Amino acid sequence: MTRLAVWCALLALSSSAANPQLDALLKNIEARYNRAQSLKLTFSETYVGVGHAPARTESGTLYLKKPGRMRWEYTSPAGKLFVSDGKQVFLYTPAQRRVELSKLKQSDDLRAPMAFLLGKLDFSKEFRSFESRSEGANTWITAEPKNPNLEFSRVEMLAASNGQILQLHVTGVGNSRIDFSFSDEVLNAPVASVEFGFRVPSGVEVVNESTR
């Protein structure tokens, strides 16, 4: 699926529904992340493809910093790194001795649009309908896109009452699915800008996806 389109659509969930509680929650989410300068959290991601392929789960620590910088530091699989300086994205897989390079705005990886989370939330466009349901003290928000030509059909987000995003599920048109779980969130966490750079290790293959 087009990863950047998925996340941009998530960030544009309509707030026009006649549901004041949901509208207030969306505004809390906007306020929480638009005011933050940096973010640190623990993540787990699970991808379920089409067919009988087994689900793949990975985890680690995510750092975000305005403007558009991010660092996905994996503990499982150990050493894997997905990092962006705001312009380029580097995916380093040590087991394969390989680095994939692409432009941030052109990347089709679902992690890439997370770089735009801080300061870019505006729940006012793109979705024709959505629903909400409670899960304990938290709320699931489910939405369908207005544009039928997008490569995803459903977005679900679990949020706490203070606006913290706890989980994110995206369903593709072909019923593939990627689920993110987030915990241990620290707003305005101290993180040096140097952490968002990447130096290619010696002897590692570099594949430039932007030229393909």
SSE pattern, N- to C-terminal: HHEEEEEEEEEEEE
- The structural class is mainly beta
Radius of gyration: 17 Å
Q: How many domains make up the 3D coordinates?
A: 1
CATH top level is Mainly Beta
Question: On the 0-100 scale, what is the average pLDDT?
Answer: 84
The count of β-strands is 12
Written overview of the protein:
This protein has one domain (3-211): Clam (outer membrane lipoprotein receptor (LolB), chain A). It is built from two helices and twelve strands, in the order H-H-E-E-E-E-E-E-E-E-E-E-E-E. The chain has helices at residues 3-10, 20-34; strands at residues 38-48, 56-65, 69-76, 78-84, 88-93, 98-103, 127-135, 138-145, 152-159, 165-172, 177-187, 205-208. Strands 7-8-9-10-11-1-2-3-4-5-6-12 form a twelve-stranded mixed beta sheet, covered by helices on one side. Strand 9 (152-159) and strand 10 (165-172) form a beta hairpin. It is globular. It starts with a helix and ends with a strand.
